[in-house]
Amino acid sequence: MTDIVVVESPSKAKTINKYLGDKYRVLASFGHVRDLPARDGSVRPDEDFAMDWEADDRGAKQINEIARALKGAKTLYLATDPDREGEAISWHVRQMLEDKNALKGVQVERVTFNEITKSAVKTAMAQPRDLDTPLIEAYLARRALDYLVGFTLSPVLWRKLPGSRSAGRVQSVALRLVCEREAEIEVFKTREYWTVEAALLTPGGAPFPAKLTHYQGRKLEQFDLPNEAAARAAEAAVKAGAFAVSAVEKKRTRRNPPPPFITSTLQQEASRKLGFSSQHTMRLAQQLYEGVEIGGDTVGLITYMRTDGVQLAKEAVGAIREQIGREFGDKYLPVAPREYQSKAKNAQEAHEAIRPTDITLKPEQVARMLSADQARLYELIYKRALACQMQAAELDQTSVDLTDGQGQTLRATGSVLAFDGFLKLYHEDQDDPSGDEEGRILPPMAKGDPARTGSVQASQHFTQPPPRYSEASLVKKMEELGIGRPSTYASILGVLRDRNYVKLENRRFIPEDRGRLVTAFLTSFFAHYVDTGFTAQLEDQLDQVAEGAANWRDVLRAFWEGFSGAIEQTKGLKISDVIDALDADLGPHFFPTREDGSDPRACPSCGGGRLGLKLGRFGSFIGCSNYPTCQYTRKLAVEGGDQQDDTLVDGVRVLGQHPETGEDITLRRGPYGLYVQQGEPDPNDKKAKPRRASLARGMDGAKLTLDEALGLLSLPRLVGVHPETGQKIEANIGRFGPYVKMGALFASLDRDDNVLHLGLNRAMDLIAKKQESVRTLGAHPKDGGDVIVRKGRFGPYVQWGNMVANLPKGREMTDLALDEAVALLAEKGKALAPKGKAAKGAKAKPGVRKAAGTKEAAPKKPAAKTAATKKPAAAKKSATRS
After folding, report:
1. In contact, 674 and 643? CB cutoff 8 Å
2. Positions of E strands within 566-625
3. How remote is the C-alpha of 540 from its chain's centroid?
4. pLDDT higher for 852 or 466?
5. In sequence order, what DSSP letters do the residues of 598-661 get, joined into one string?
6. 163 burial class (0-12, 13-18, 19+ CB within 10 angstroms)?
């Protein structure tokens, strides 16, 4: 009798099945099997926060497969990830199987392991437990909150602030941090100050630098030398003085190693040292966690990467200490193991810190089995874990004061690394002893020794504004404030960029005007709900739910009562009220003070009007108060890469006329960016629509010509004929960007390719690269239509129209013949699940391929739906993702 184990990913399923043997069958859920449908009413506060859950096609398919596998099984082991999301996925799987009556006579157990190694998996299987109800309820509360904020607040944004996207519970607070930092930078006033440094010599002629710290008997503060005149006077006093050593102070300091990585610190260090984004770091860490093949076995290289606990298992600490002794010797090993406690607010510490599963697997040993980025991240994790148990570094710090007896004091400082300790292996930025003073060795000096003055230099400085947030510093700030959780940081930063609320420039976040408008709106009318303190307090309450100390519905009721009231108050909010509030809040940003003292809001067109923020159908712009007499407008800053054009009047610019029809060719701004249009809608035929085409990636609307617009409207265009196959090659723009097409083969254009000017050689090159993963075997001998073999996520497969069949295990796609493929389709062929609303009830014919850029017509499967107090799964990304 085979027991069933459910994990999240297929690669993990394959590995764990090897560890457990034939008595178990391991299946993947592919993450979440169901979610809150993205429509109103999926969470119903009036029904005590009842929730509707809906499975997509993949989720329903996986549950059906698990249900079939359970026939005859004695036990179902739910072995999803050891965090809230993993607990929730296990809960969903169980609920859906119960709804199918698939668990009769089957015992359900929950198992978790912090690393994918044979010993960890077998130990977990021997220690099953029940599902953690408080953890699930905390997840339900969090998902309900995210859904309610997203689907309640976002429509208010769309109505009252045209051109905005959507708002999320945590994402909006992170955006506020970025916008407030930018506002600080804008109002920052640079201040001048000077310092004086001298090059000195000991009696023996050894040089060393010193800085003026006291002038005319008074200690110098930062701005005590505010200008060049004061600095030159101080410089002259130093040059005229005869200095001697008045005091020598030496002390030894210890610097302890940093703790092992948690999710946030891993993202921060990977950003600083490797230049990785948070999302890229987490993708790589997931791959290292799921493992690579070593010696015929797939082994997880690191422990679970979503954690805020800094503690390590005793066995791991012991193994790390043994490795330190072997590699560095006993002098690098502390007498007792180091123990760490988290300083982060709301840290759960439910799991270990991130560490290698086997500390004897050195980075250089596994590098050849990893990609370059995987290897770099593994090395970072390895060194941090090893260093955290090493001896402290010791530094000898020396400071020497020299006086001239006339009120001037110079100070020389130096720091020498006496014992490198953990610094032998690992440096954080602040650990680097090579700065201006640290790392400097001062020559031997004693009290009373004279010093000869060499050059003296007065230097000008200016204060700097606070730095913009990097991914690393923003994650650190959110962690300090208790906003979000380890599993959410990467997605929060990704959402801010995806919605064009911020952009990354030189690895620093800069808010777009769209993001600043949204933040100004939320802080003006929903200040309580984008307050960092309130958001952190709500996280505290969710943590209490997870600990079983609070009722999740009580938390939701308390939140909803105030939030729904705030939403209700905006119903009577006039657009003019919104404009006034935003104009007052963002005035300094849009109309900065001019150096000549003139009015920054004076209209440059009519002279008598006042510029102010305006809201139009497609978003915000700057306009004159004398409209319509004065029609001066000014765009806001380019928003997140959206194409913009100053020359558009009321969102339209005429480029010229079509050479054949005489119709106007216009450039227009729509809710999804700029597009070109031929002619106007026919008022007598509402179904007839004018021809339209979106601008290709990289096109500048302000520089768009009539010829380019005509080229876009004439797509698809014939690039040429392939000299070997005789097939036509066409270029076009589809749902996912520009592409070339030959027969049934599609290949995306690179960022530097121009869809209007792409040549045949380049198109053939793109097609050739695509052919490496797709082969056309020929026409079906009976019914026609191309038979294709493709590389898929889970191996090569044959496709004919909407029929697919996997190749036998171990069979390569390169040597498959047409007759073999046809036989395979006849024997094992399955119809692809159709997609899209347009084809309800329609059935795709074999061998007939859908047109490029269109959705395939298909009947939609009825969703598996449950009304219950169950997990509010991630509601639609665009509205609710934190």
Report:
1. yes
2. 611-616, 619-624
3. 24
4. 466
5. --TTB-TTTSSSBEEEEEETTEEEEEETTTTT---EE--S--TT----TT-BTTEEEEEE-TTT
6. buried
Q: Say how many CA atoms lie within 13 Å of 705 toward its Cβ.
A: 4
Of 13-27, 127-141, 641-655, 815-829, which range is least confident?
641-655
Three-state secondary structure of 262-281:
CHHHHHHHHHHHHCCCHHHH
- By C-alpha distance, which of 432, 412, 413, 414 is closest to 422? 432
Q: What is the CA radius of gyration of the chain?
A: 33
DSSP 506: T
The residue assigned the tokens 């801010």 is: 496
Q: Which pLDDT does position 793 carry in this prediction?
A: 64
Residue 433 has pLDDT above 60, yes or no: no
d(CA 176, CA 182): 10
Find all residues with CB under 8 Å of 226, minimum gap 6, and list them: 192, 193, 194
Question: Which residues are within 8 A (CB) of 296 and not within 5 positions of it... i.e. 6 or more apart?
Answer: none
Q: What is the pLDDT of residue 528?
A: 87
Length of the chain: 882
Closest CA to 827 of 849, 805, 798: 805
Backbone angles phi, psi at 75, to 5 degrees: -135, 140
Reported as a single tens digit per residue, the pLDDT across 268-299 is 899 889 988 888 898 899 889 888 877 667 78
**pLDDT at residue 636 tops 80:** no
Report CA 487 to chain centroid distance, whole Å: 11
Q: How far apart are CA 743 and CA 442, in angstroms?
A: 75
Cis omega (within 30 of 0) for bond into 628: yes
Alpha-carbon span 34 to 108, nearest angstrom: 19
Domains of the chain: 3-131 (3.40.50.140), 140-188+478-577 (1.10.460.10), 192-256+393-462 (2.70.20.10), 264-387 (1.10.290.10), 774-851 (no CATH)
Which helix (H) or strand (E) element contains residue 20?
helix 10-20
In whole angstroms, give the CA distance from residue 13 to residue 5: 8
Give which of 783, 770, 777 is closest to 741, Cα–Cα: 770
- Residue-level pLDDT at 111: 94
The single-letter code of the amino acid at 684 is N
Residues involved in catalysis: 304
In sequence order, which ranges of 591-721 are alpha helices (DSSP H)? 706-713
Evaluate whether 855 touches 836 at the Cβ level (below 8 Å): yes
98 vs 51, 103, 112, 118, CA distance in Å?
17, 6, 21, 30
For tokens 């589809």, the residue is 734
What's the confidence (pLDDT) of residue 230?
Answer: 95
Distance CA 732, CA 755 (A): 7
> Above 90 in pLDDT, residue 98?
yes
pLDDT band at 164 (very low <50, low <70, confident <90, very high): low
Kindly report the pTM of this predicted structure.
Answer: 0.64
Helix (H) or strand (E) holding 731: strand 728-734
Which residue type occupies 508? R
Of 666, 718, 719, the C-alpha closest to 693 is 666
Going by C-beta distance under 8 Å and a sequence separation of 6 or more, which residues neighbour residue 304? Answer: 81, 82, 83, 114, 115, 289, 351, 352, 354
Give the distance from CA 652 to its chain's centroid: 35
For range 849-874, the mean pLDDT: 38
- Which helix (H) or strand (E) segment holds residue 94: the answer is helix 84-99
CA dihedral 595, 601, 603, 604 (to 10 degrees): 20
Question: What's the rounded mean pLDDT across residues 788-805?
Answer: 82
Q: Please give the share of the chain, as a percent, with pLDDT higher than 90.
A: 34
Whether residue 781 is preceded by a cis peptide bond, meaning omega within 30 degrees of 0, is: no
Residues 330, 645: Cα–Cα separation, whole Å:
68
